[in-house]
Design brief:
With 365 residues, the chain is α/β, with parallel strands linked by helices. It has two domains: 207 residues, Rossmann fold, CATH 3.40.50; 113 residues, Rossmann fold. Helix content is 42%, strand content 19%. The chain is built from 14 helices and 15 strands. The protein has an eight-stranded mixed β-sheet. Strands 4-3-5-6-7 form a five-stranded mixed β-sheet, sandwiched between helices.
Length: 365
Amino acid sequence: METTNSLIQLIEESIRKNWNLDAMTDYKGATLQYKDVARKIEKMHILLEHAGIKKGDKIALCGRNSANWTATFLGVITYGAVAVPILHEFKADNVHNIVNHSEARMLFVGDQVWENFNEAAMPHLEGIIELKNFDLVVSRSEQLTYAREHLNEEFGKRYPCRFRAENVSYRREELEELAVINYTSGTTGYSKGVMLPYRSIISNIEHIHKKVGLHPGDNVVSMLPLGHIFGLVFDFLYGVTAGAHLWFLTRMPSPKIIAESFAEIRPRVIACVPLIVEKIFKKNILPKVDNKLGKLLLKLPIVSDKIKEQIRTHAMEVFGSNFIEIVIGGAPFNPEVEAFLRKINFPYTIAYGMTEAAPLICHSR
């Protein structure tokens, strides 16, 4: 990945360069190659154009991590609209408030969360599209209805022969141009919208690449919610610009699911919150070393080198045995667990930041 001042340029170059590589996979589901993502982006541009969406208009996305969620997001920003990612765990009234407050013109929604929402509470939306199959579930615009019904036809008119890598040509953004409005968790009332320019996002991506250094084809498991800036930038946007293969678990990342999926995927970098690491060590790793001793190891001041190496080897296997490092952030780390990771020389990194920094402030081994 070359240094540039354009996130859109990095996305375009990665798609063209990695055209035939796997880009995004829903675990136990379908895989999109970079050329498939490019087609979805192009169809998104046609849809937004025919629906009358203008540069700077807001488009909201609310759903679990998935290949279609990420392809939609890329379509939105490369078109020139502003993405409004919303955590799918938010309660319906908070989602309604975010959609209305951001003045979103369209909402892309996951089928699992859509049933909890009320379109009447979002009166200014012109349309709601379901992410699973891109079905138009609510339309208040004749333009949007026509655009969705004739989308494949319009794509065929624009590319009558074949859609190729050389057809991928996106706009170039201004550094201070608004890219994303990311709403915080709202611990003091309704969520607050943080306005993030492209400058913030590209600076984070350049830093992550220097520190982590993914290569095209490397596997990344996206566990952090894409509605949160940590997962959005660290896993997704950096992964795409590096030509990585993103995997979405599409379910709650329990220790059992992580052990099963990581053994198959063998990710190169893992970003997660401390609770996931704590649960896996306490439930999947320490008890297997010795059921009686395992429960005491965290509290022992001295652990033998043999036991430490045994635990470290098993821990590496649980996380896929192929990762450069595990990046932990988003919440305070349990001091006992962190001290134990240091004892066994486990490769982890603590990242600290906030939404306003998009998100990194410090990232240290």
